[in-house]
Write a structure and sequence with these properties.
The structure holds two protein chains of two kinds.
Chain A (H helix, E strand, L loop, with lengths): L1 H19 L16 E4 L4 E3 L8 E6 L5 H17 L6 E5 L11 H10 L6 E3 L4 H6 L3 E2 L1 E8 L2 E8 L15 H10 L13 E3 L6
Parallel strand pairs in A: 3-4, 4-5
Antiparallel strand pairs in A: 1-2, 1-5, 3-7, 6-9, 7-8
Chain B lengths: L1 H15 L5 E3 L1 H9 L5 E7 L4 H16 L3 E7 L9 H10 L4 E5 L4 H8 L6 E2 L1 E6 L5 E4 L7 H9 L1
Classes of the chains: A alpha+beta, B alpha/beta.
Chain lengths: ~200, ~160
């Protein structure tokens, strides 16, 4: 009996251990992206499926408060200006928990979008489920999506370019190069880069 | 008079700051991280604008002051966004930081991040804990809390 109990406990411990170990989460390049629906700063809901007719979408996890986000703000506006007309509009998603980062509340998002004249959606990922599904870790963090006949897949993950401090010092425009490659039916030169930035402020568990 | 002011301008800042953080390139930082020692090396990546980094900083200051077998290095990434190191100097002075501070001067994060730690997404705070004798290391990319450093150190002993 004692032996059996021991085995049972050991088995139970194994089960618990497996359940407790974190699952590998987040998209990799090539993965198909699930649809999502989030509230935009204009109060309307926006879904990925709304973009079914575009060639792709530049999804950027971004926020109001991170100095890297601020440094990239104009470059993100520029991306939308240059690539929305070519079929790759920007969709920005703010995943930070306002309880930890008050400057990232929905009201503050509305203010920033108005001040900077965002001409792309700036969505609030209130439950943080979209950021988790994507595997976003910091802001700004780009996931370039490619439309394959109605299904979006990830074509590039990472930074916007290689010079956070200074837009004039950029030598590699990762996102632009990836889009140009897709438009020219070529291989994306770098599919994954590392983007330095601020950690996403996750809700306290 | 102008000359005097000029001289004062040079002398004063150096004496006002508690320590002058060294500006380093990736190679120097790597040499520092990989240097031989019998101690435990803690390398923390931070920036003056990073709130969670500032919050956890007292933990590094405390363990560095209390344990003779722990060498703490705080690597500032401020230059990544702001070309003026004075912001970091002023911070060190104001907070009376005792740990060694290095300021990394590198441009393309996508190149240097991988050279330091492959598993690093690029978010800060991030911390590497290394057993100086065995080279065994632990990497964490999150804000640390009371007791976390001790646990991480125990994992590499």
């Amino acid at each position: 009996m004692k032996m059996m109990m021991k085995t049972l406990f050991a088995a139970l411990a194994c089960v618990l251990f497996v359940a407790a170990s974190p699952l590998k989460s987040g998209y990799e390049v090539g993965d198909t992206v699930a649809d999502f629906k989030l509230k935009n700063v204009n109060g309307k809901m926006v879904s990925l499926s709304d973009y079914a007719s575009s060639k792709g979408v530049i999804v950027i996890f971004d926020c109001n408060t991170c100095p890297y986000s601020k440094a990239y703000n104009d470059r993100i506006l520029e991306l939308n200006k240059n690539f929305a007309s070519k079929g790759f509009p920007v969709v920005a998603i703010q995943p930070n928990d306002p309880a930890i980062s008050p400057g990232d509340s929905f009201d503050e998002m509305v203010k920033l979008a108005e001040k900077k004249k965002y001409d792309f959606p700036y969505l609030f990922d209130e439950t943080q489920s979209v950021a988790k599904t994507f595997g976003a870790t910091n802001t700004p963090h780009v996931f370039l999506l490619k439309n394959n006949g109605g299904k979006f897949s990830v074509a590039y993950i990472g930074a916007i370019d290689d010079a956070p401090r200074d837009a004039s010092g950029v030598s590699k425009k990762y996102v632009e190069e990836a889009i140009d490659a897709i438009l020219g039916s070529k291989e994306v030169p770098s599919t994954k880069t590392k983007a330095i930035g601020c950690t996403i402020k996750w809700k306290n568990a | 008079m102008r000359k005097l002011l000029l001289i004062l301008g040079f002398v004063l800042p150096a004496s006002v700051f508690a320590q002058q953080a060294e500006i380093v390139k990736l190679k120097q930082l790597q040499d520092h991280i990989n240097r031989q020692t019998d101690n435990i090396k803690i390398i923390n990546f931070w920036a003056t604008w990073c709130a969670p980094c500032i919050k956890e900083m007292p933990l590094f200051e405390k363990i560095g002051a209390e344990r003779k077998d722990v060498e703490v290095t705080l690597v500032s990434l401020d230059l990544d966004l702001n070309p003026k190191p004075e912001t970091v100097y002023r911070f060190i002075d104001r907070k009376k930081i005792q740990s060694k501070v290095l300021i990394l001067d590198e441009k393309d994060p996508n190149v240097w991040i991988n050279q330091i730690e492959k598993g690093w997404s690029g978010a800060i705070p991030a911390t590497i804990i290394i057993n100086g004798k065995t080279g065994q290391r632990k990497f964490v990319e999150k804000e640390l809390h009371e007791g976390d450093l001790e646990k991480l150190i125990a994992e590499i002993l």
